[in-house]
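Problem: given the chain below (317 residues), write out its structure.
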Amino acid sequence: MTGAPAPASEAELALVFEAQRPRLLRLAYATTGSLAEAEDCVQEAWLRLDRATDRETIRDLGAWLTTTVSRLALDSLGSARARRERYAGPWLPEPVIESLGAAGGGVADLGAGTAGGPGTDPADRITLDESVSMALLVVLETLSPAERTAFVLHDVFGLPFDEISGVVGRSAPAVRQLASRARRHVRDGRPRVQPSRAEQAELLDAFVRASTAGDMERLMALLDPDVTWRADGGGKVRATPRLVHGAAAIGRLLAGFARRPPLRLRTVLVNGSPGLVMRDADGVLGVVALTVDGGRITAIDVIRNPDKLAAAASLLD
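Solution.
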């Protein structure tokens, strides 16, 4: 627990680490946008802790783990940026998906089953809220690694700037500036009015009905005039190769649902908000996340890269 030193026994150490795991996964996931990379960071932190010969010098295990995972996530994000710049088409965060029937107030399995150490219990869970929404993660992708880390650690996790300075290698005043710049970008890019889950679910239902019926008039009423479409196929499956803007253009894309309806479609939670998992007319798996602002859909994010959808397939089996 935060504020307590590292236990001496291996069994106690593993138990305390397990209590920290959901928070650490959420931190690493918000920083990297990748569940796989987040799991790797948390697992590496466990290995470092387990191998440490000077654990008795750790006076605050929670702070030590937060710093260690944050540094690992920052390193992972830095190396990932080059790969994402060479990515085939738009890059979208790996979605965290949960069945609506199993949802417990926005809680989804995140990182259960990490092999080789603590975390093999499927009960590992993380609270999915606005801090890891798809809308926010997409905005965070526009920040530098240092800005993103400063924002996540300070604005989401409440760490003071002097502690964050040790993670990003900048002075506390410099970290304050990083977080301030990031905050402005986030404020400009995220929804102005956060809809309730009921409002999101209602709009999602209307969106599905209008899309599958080819009801363009209804679709135009649901879509914000400046709505954005992003589709991530990773070069492995067919996906729209660039961003599409505007209700009319996106309405034409959605008309394909009526001409070639999906083979299977299910409403789920995507990063804590209502979304869709589906197999299209060609059998390709995809996850759809909607961003809602002011009662209209302002962004449609479609993740089709199979490397990011391992958990989604089981929801349609």
